[in-house]
Amino acid sequence: MITARNLTVSLSGKTIVHGVSLEARAGELTAIVGPNGSGKTTMMKAIAGELPSKGEIAINGHALAALEPWQLAVKRAVLPQAATIAFPFTVREIVRLGLTVGPNRHAERIDAITAEALAAVDLAGFAGRFYQELSGGEQQRVQLARVLSQIWEPVLDGEPCFLMLDEPVSALDIRHQLTIMTLARRYCAGGGGVIAVMHDLNLTAMFADHMVMMKSGRIEHAGPPAKVMTDDAMEAVFGCRMRINGVPATGVPFVLPHTASA
Amino acid sequence: MSLNDAVRGDGARGSFLMRSVRARAAGDRTAIARLTLAALVVVSAVALALSIATGASDASALNVIGALFSGAEDTALSMRDRIIVFDIRMPRALLGFLIGAALAMSGAVMQGLFRNPLADPALVGISSGSALGAVLMIVLGASLPAGVMIALGAFALPLAAFAGGLLTTLLLYRIATRGGQTSVATMLLAGIAISALAAAITGILIYMADDKQLRDITFWSLGSLSGMTWAKLLAAGPIILLALLVVPFLSRGLNAITLGEAAAFHMGVKVQRLKYIAVVSVAGAVGASVAVSGGIGFVGIVVPHLLRIVIGPDHRYLLPASALFGGVLMLGADMLARTIVAPAELPIGIITALAGAPFFLWVLLRDRTRNGW
Fold first, then answer.
1. pLDDT in tens, B43-62
2. pLDDT tens, B17-32?
3. Which residues of B touch A126 (CB under 8 A)?
4. Where are the domains of chain A?
């Protein structure tokens, strides 16, 4: 479990995240949503240990501040927003970095895990391509394969590992959005945890167990999507009136008046 | 793997070499990297041997070694050959190789650290700092107390250049570091400013210099491997060697940092320590090299760039391969420099720039479409 208590993050003198507390449990997909500039990415970076912050952060009970980078690297992996690479790495070489940079727990299975991770993000057969030649969405999936290979086992030495994904599906087509969200769910089913910054509210509703709604650096609502996503909460957080609907139980016919023609 | 993927995977544009690498190992260039490294070890040995065996004089290294082992009487002729081979060619070849290795590997490290294939040690002010140190010593050395100059002897110039390079780099590192975090972008920009400042001060000194000093400055700045002695090798060699041995330990971290500093940290790299060791090693190696040889350009950019095309950017192979290839290139350029207008010799910096610059342009233009720059 990842816990943050009274987390405050300031960037060049400006406070971005104001004393938030949250829990991300193993076996659950925790989605962080909110408008642009609400502090989602900043909060995630603080939890990843990348930004200095005030408050307490712990991974599986270990205080974050007491962990060295290589100790953190076996407990959590982080998918950043778009990354450019200046050198001509092949896809295989990028994914392999996830396995060879930190403490290498799977030295004998590097090739196998690389292939499996690429297949998991639907990029089997891309190992020989140059990263720079790929489309934005393909690059995003290569990075995800790299992140996935870093903590390939959802549970290591009895401790759950955590995937931290910053807008993992922002550049993807609808089929691959579903592929990646399903992948995240499978990671949770395997005993690991996932924290994802999301913009697509429908995907969040479909896949998240726990939803954290942020506005202006504070957590406004947190809980299961079915409870948190109300018309009023959405308006308060996103600043526009929307109606939340539920898909009817399978087999029950329903009428969608939008489709009516007089 | 679908048929579509297979076609897209192997049918992409690229050079013949790239296509063959792809077809053979689907993105795994480990084999070709190891092969290249092995080949470079052999070529390095050959280049060192050739460099010791050839020169403006007809002294034969084989004869000298033969004489050593047969225990023959020292004739005047073999004595002369022995001096040429042992005291002139050998320190020159060894130091030349080390300098080439230092410049090329430092280029690779800087490019990795700055995540830019065009970065080189000159960017962080090492070269201009060294030049300032050297020019200071040439112009103002005469006004130092005679005792100091006598104590320093032939080391005065190299020491000044080394100190200049190291001090500039450390100053730059201080400027770019705030709250324990070094900003690589600040370092780059401040490097440009500090280089300009060093160049201006150098300019003032050149303006003050007399004719003989001007000639010294010009020759130093052109770069040369002439006048290499065992003493210089003992002075600069250990610093360069230490850097060459330390830097390969940074290769995994440099690989990670190509994805960005944050990503490197996420993967378990102590980024700040990596930056510090990289900058100090490069400052030491390049400072020591520039100190004894003057300004030798283009090795630091051309060598890693060419190797990346062949073996890929994995620093575990790129760093040692750059060192070996840089050493070989330097010896090749030096052999040209001292035979092309024998018995006189060209400053080697002219040859590396004359051959390196057009070649580099050619590579850039050829790859422009693929790399997008």
1. 999 999 988 887 766 666 66
2. 555 444 445 778 888 9
3. 5, 9
4. 2-81+155-244
Chain B nearest CA to A206, separation (Å): 29
Confidence (pTM): 0.85
Helix (H) or strand (E) holding B68: helix B61-70
DSSP β-bridge partners for residue A30: A195, A210
Residue B259 has its nearest CB partner, among A48, A76, A85, at A85
State whether residue A49 sits within 8 Å of chain B by CB. yes
Per-residue pLDDT of B255-296, as tens digits, reads 999 898 889 999 999 998 998 899 888 888 888 888 888 767
A127: Cβ contacts below 8 Å, ≥ 6 apart:
A90, A91, A92, A95, A114, A115, A118, B9, B26, B27, B28
A131 touches A85 (CB < 8 A)? yes
Closest CB from B10, B259, B309 relative to A83: B259
Asked if the A2-81+155-244 domain carries CATH number 3.40.50.300, the reply is yes
Question: Å from A109 to nearest chain B CA?
Answer: 15
The confidence band for A190, taking pLDDT boundaries of 50, 70 and 90, is: very high
Rounded to whole angstroms, how far apart are CA atoms B285 and B103? 8
A132 reaches B (C-beta below 8 A): yes
Strands A193-197 and A162-166: parallel
The DSSP symbol for A65 reads G
SS3 assignment for A75-126: CEEEECCCCCCCCCCEHHHHHHHHHHCCCCCCHHHHHHHHHHHHHHCCCCCC
Mean pLDDT (chain B, rounded): 80
A134 touching B (Cβ < 8 Å):
no
Cα separation, B364 vs B373, whole angstroms: 8
Closest CA–CA distance from residue B29 to any residue of chain A (Å): 8
Region class of A31: left (phi > 0), else alpha (psi between -120 and 50), else beta: beta
Chain A positions touching B263 (Cβ under 8 A) are 78, 80, 83
Compare CB distances from A92 to B27, B259, B313 and report the shortest one's residue. B27
Contact residues on chain B for A48, CB-CB shorter than 8 A: 266
Q: How far apart are CA A69 and CA A49, in angstroms?
A: 9
Rounded Cα gap, residues A157 and A170, in angstroms = 33
Q: Where are the alpha helices (DSSP H) in chain A?
A: 40-48, 69-73, 91-100, 110-120, 136-150, 174-189, 201-207, 225-228, 231-238
Q: Which helix or strand (DSSP H or E) is residue A120 part of? A: helix A110-120
Do A100 and B255 lie within an 8 Å CB cutoff?
A: yes
Fold assignment, B39-55+91-368: ABC transporter involved in vitamin B12 uptake, BtuC (1.10.3470)
CA distance linking residue B106 with residue B93, whole number of Å: 20
CB A57 within 8 A of CB A47: yes
- Pick from B263, B270, B312: which is nearest to A89 by CB? B312
Q: Is A116 on the interface with B (CB under 8 A)?
A: no
Joined together, the tokens standing for residue A32 give: 């962080």
**Which has the closest alpha carbon to B184: B118, B251, B111?**
B111
**Whole-Å CA distances, B176 to A105, A259, B169, B181:** 36, 61, 10, 8
Residues A10, A13, A16: CA angle, nearest 5 degrees: 35
- Closest-approach residue (CA) in chain A for B24: A128
